[in-house]
Amino acid sequence: MNKDFMQHAKFKRNIVQPDQAQQLIMPYVKLLETEHVALTEARGRFLAEPVLAPHPYPHFRRSGMDGYALRSEDTKGAATDKPVTLEVIDEIPAGSLPGVPLRPGTAARIMTGAKVPDEADAVVMLEMTEKLEQEGQTLFTLKREIEAGTNLTPIGRELQAQDLLLEAGRMISAGETSVLATFGYHQVLVRRRPRVAICSTGSELLRVEEPLQDGRIRNSNTYTLACQVQDAGGEPYILDSIADDLELAKQRVMKALEEYDIVITSGGVSVGDYDIMADLVQEGSVTMLFNKVAMRPGSVTTAAVYGDKLLFALSGNPGACFVGFELFARPAIRGMLGASDPYLPRLEAVLGEDYTKINNFTRFVRGSLEYKEGRVYVHPAKLDESGVMITIKDSDVLIVVPPTSTGFTAGQQVTAILLPKGI
Amino acid sequence: MNKDFMQHAKFKRNIVQPDQAQQLIMPYVKLLETEHVALTEARGRFLAEPVLAPHPYPHFRRSGMDGYALRSEDTKGAATDKPVTLEVIDEIPAGSLPGVPLRPGTAARIMTGAKVPDEADAVVMLEMTEKLEQEGQTLFTLKREIEAGTNLTPIGRELQAQDLLLEAGRMISAGETSVLATFGYHQVLVRRRPRVAICSTGSELLRVEEPLQDGRIRNSNTYTLACQVQDAGGEPYILDSIADDLELAKQRVMKALEEYDIVITSGGVSVGDYDIMADLVQEGSVTMLFNKVAMRPGSVTTAAVYGDKLLFALSGNPGACFVGFELFARPAIRGMLGASDPYLPRLEAVLGEDYTKINNFTRFVRGSLEYKEGRVYVHPAKLDESGVMITIKDSDVLIVVPPTSTGFTAGQQVTAILLPKGI
After folding, report:
1. Mean pLDDT, rounded, for A4-29
2. Considering the domain A36-54+164-191, what is its CATH architecture?
3. pLDDT at res. A244
């Protein structure tokens, strides 16, 4: 190992701003191939093409009530003291078609969702009528006028044929599934999930199942990253963690870059005596995008490109690793999936407490959300150093604290990045 | 079929308020059995027991920097014009233990995350020192005093042994995974997922892959419900949809209640000529909890109990079916999982536009969220009748509109229920 180079390289990091760093990655994010999945397997996948309405919706004049389909003109003048009587000449359950045309003075018993006869222009609900049987005829009386269009959903009320139903790049959740099923899309074209290799480095790492040892810690970052990869829509592959053996680490990383779409390492990129990435860049094996970001935690975050693969070397500090993933690796995964917006949503919130820590870098502070009387507050976590692990679990947001020499006071407006939640 | 009974029963529904309906269900929600899952499979599962810290964290005095571990008293009086020189007698990579005790005037080269020697009480970062080689000795100079505790994370900084790490009933996401891995929980005790049978009723229903037919619609509710069940943490099982044959429907529902934890039907519960539920209740096969809720959409939502199984008969209208699931079935699923809060989160938001529809029932209006300058606004969907499907996909919230004879104006405060998002 060339220690002199390492010492040299590590002090020559070109620092970029966090948003610059995000922009440096995007040109290298390739759209992954498409594949068809069954609608029942499509939840959480991203549409690879826009979906259009093959027909209007509803595609027939639909009854909105259980009652009688009638011609509104037949109810003209109906009143409490002057009921109108109509003859029931048809019965139309949902899914059936009208059997006979309605003549003036006649109506059809109809169920919610059934097709309204062409001659009818309204449906009166059952509860507003009184049924009579008279000389073998079924009749009902009605004591008020019914307006044309009542309880009748016209063709195309929600959508016209060829209307855009769903944009490409949209994630499929319950609402999208409803649309797809309604229009007969039992197979959906989506992008395949990025295969993301995750690998921790550091000889201090114990496997999760190993007993504790003095001076060593368990490897938690790979498991956390695996969750984060799934939240983003990727498929995580946990590789064996590698000790601080530079040659071995390099070989492993290059092999992973051959086999996976994205490789994420954690640890080993700190300004220390061991630095895989600097060496890989020096050798020309990968092309560096950035190796230092003006942010806390995780300033020594590195991103590099190998062909159409991406390599992220995140800090080994749990807090910094978590933040580095959400800011840089997640957008890459979402970009490969063709997501219409690969970044986590941001919102303007009110700072719930003073934040007095000063910093000349942008700080991404773990925090919790609170809604109160129409306002949205964010509360910084009590412990948010890069090495702190315990506050990740209680964080709803990353509060974006710009460089400051004075800190911020409660009540000021700040930007917060909404962290992924849900399953 | 006893039409007279049906006609009778359907007008004799006992109406309950939505929150009463939720409370009527909860006593019948049983906690499901526990099972161990590997940490890598635990995402989205619910902890069945509280998790305690088996040891403090960190469990050794950890260096927060690459630099030198030293005795702060040795740096007393150090200044630019009066540098202190210390001898480096040890090198401690992360994961290794100190090799020799530090005597006064000596220090140890140390990496981020490594164990600080017992005799040292601070770490100075490498960049603040100047290295010298002199007569076979490695030395460094330092031009300022270092306070005790600098860059040194004490034992138990984040957690003490026996501290509560995670409460029972908590869902496992990235942050929880980080905690579990850190403390060696490679197997996690969770509750098994509820098995939820989903079944649409109605002879108007086409399978999703069938060509369109006049007067008939495709079965979209089962697919939407399957997504919603997964969002809630359950395992959906889509059963064949059943036509409006009362006997067949009853048999199918009872068989499903034997085999699954929860059965959800959609359609067939409207005030019409066909009503499975009323018949099952009348026969004593199931015990009714409620069969009408003072809400829109979905007033004809039914819940019933069969032993320790739950049956939900939701409206066949897509909008009403969606809302009915989120209000009633989701809390039952989350309750069976032992979730600490089975209900969707609520927030107070500002109504973004006038809402003029009047109603004597509480209305759950699909809406979108907007954050602006520290305030949170909700915008009601343009189309929100119970039969409307297309606006489900764009909804972030259900706006809770209480009974009103005047409507509500933009700027008023309203309660909104946050809908599940994410994968």
Report:
1. 76
2. Alpha-Beta Complex (3.90)
3. 65
B137-142 and B84-92: which strand pairing?
antiparallel
CA distances from B9 to B78, B270, B278 (A): 91, 12, 7
| Architecture of the domain made up of B3-32+194-336 | 3-Layer(aba) Sandwich (3.40)
Q: Which residues of A touch B316 (CB under 8 A)?
A: 112-113
Determine the residue of chain B that is closest to A67 in CA distance.
B272
Question: Phi then psi for A354, rounded to 5 degrees?
Answer: -60, 145
Q: Retrieve residue B154's tokens.
A: 């004490």
Q: What is the pLDDT of residue B14?
A: 76
Taking the C-alpha atoms of residue B312 and residue B228, their distance in angstroms, rounded to an integer, is 14
Topology adopted by domain B62-153? Molybdopterin biosynthesis moeA protein; domain 3 (2.170.190)
Contact call for B174 and A231, based on CB within 8 A: yes
The domains of chain B are located at: 3-32+194-336, 42-55+164-191, 62-153, 346-418
* CA distance, residue B78 to nearest chain A CA (Å): 25
Instruction: Classify domain A3-32+193-336 at the CATH topology level.
Output: Molybdenum Cofactor Biosythetic Enzyme; Chain A (3.40.980)
pLDDT reported for residue B5: 37
User: Can you tell me the ipTM of this complex?
Assistant: 0.92
Closest residue on chain B to A229 (Cα): B174
Dihedral sign, Cα of residue A64, residue A65, residue A68, residue A73? negative
For residue B318, the chain A residues in CB contact (below 8 A) are 178, 182
Chain A positions in Cβ-Cβ contact with residue B223 (cut-off 8 Å): 39-40, 177-178, 180-181
Binary contact (B43, A230; C-beta < 8 A): yes
Of B176, B376, B423, the CB nearest to A231: B423
Domain range B346-418, its CATH number among 3.40.50.10310, 2.40.340.10, 1.10.1140.10, 2.30.110.10: 2.40.340.10
What letter represents residue A304's amino acid?
A
A293: left (phi over 0), alpha (psi -120 to 50) or beta: beta
